[in-house]
Every structure is written in structure tokens, then in C-alpha cells.
Design the sequence.
């Protein structure tokens, strides 16, 4: 189970909210009977832009693997990765907005290209004029 209780306070403290302060926030939001069932509380530190870079690499790597299983190659320019980080970074909500950004800007448009049966087996995703461009490459 995850919760955003005291998330703003954790952000404001740089991820170093004290145990007593955290316990106070939890007690204000949950009944003691529920809190007694929790074995451990793990406080996650806020994500940084560097973390988001790793997550972009991971998410795009998974997309590439899924496509390679279908015989389709795709490459992403560094500018595309930087755009995804800028568009998908939201310190308050963690990595979930980034995943949605990748789906919206990369996975869904690429799926439409593939569904339209253009038959290409290799693509390079680049940034041109501030927009993502899906160029087919010779395999």
C-alpha cells in the first residue's frame, strides 16, 4: 500500500521528515486499529531529474523490447529522452506522470503508425521543430 500522506511536508523537508512528525500525520488520517496492522513504513525520497533519466531509459528499454519481440526496431534520440523528462516530471506525483507521457507521446503514436500498416521494421524517434518525429529507417 502506498499513501501520499505528508507528501508535501516530506518534499519540503527534502525527504527527511522525522518519525514523530510522520506518526502525527498518520494518526491524524488513520484509525489506530488500521495503523496497528502496518508492519513497516518506508518513506520515499523525492525523485530528481537524474532519477527520471534512469526511469526514461528503463521505460523506453521496455518498449523497445516489446517491439523487438515483434521484429520492429526503434531508436530514440537523446533530445527525445530530454523532452520526455521535461514533459513527464512532476515531483509531487513521482514517476507515474512520466509513464503516461511516454504512452501519450511515443507508444500511442508509434502504435498508430504500425497499425496503419506502413510495413517498416525500423524507426528512429527524433525531435524536430519541438515535436516528435517518427522516421522509418532501412532495416
Sequence:
Amino acid at each position: 500500500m502506498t499513501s501520499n500522506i505528508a507528501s508535501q511536508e516530506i518534499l519540503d523537508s527534502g525527504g527527511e521528515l522525522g518519525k514523530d512528525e510522520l506518526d502525527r500525520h498518520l494518526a491524524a488520517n488513520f484509525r489506530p486499529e488500521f495503523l496497528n496492522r502496518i508492519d513497516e513504513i518506508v518513506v520515499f525520497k523525492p525523485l530528481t531529474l537524474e532519477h527520471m533519466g534512469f526511469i526514461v531509459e528503463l521505460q523506453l528499454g521496455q518498449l523497445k523490447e516489446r517491439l523487438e519481440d515483434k521484429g520492429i526496431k526503434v531508436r530514440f534520440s537523446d533530445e527525445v529522452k530530454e523532452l520526455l523528462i521535461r514533459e513527464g516530471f512532476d515531483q509531487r506525483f513521482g514517476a507515474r506522470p512520466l509513464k503516461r507521457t511516454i504512452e501519450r507521446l511515443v507508444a500511442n503514436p508509434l502504435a498508430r503508425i504500425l497499425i496503419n500498416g506502413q510495413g517498416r521494421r525500423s524507426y528512429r524517434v527524433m525531435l524536430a521543430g519541438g515535436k516528435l518525429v517518427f522516421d522509418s529507417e532501412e532495416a
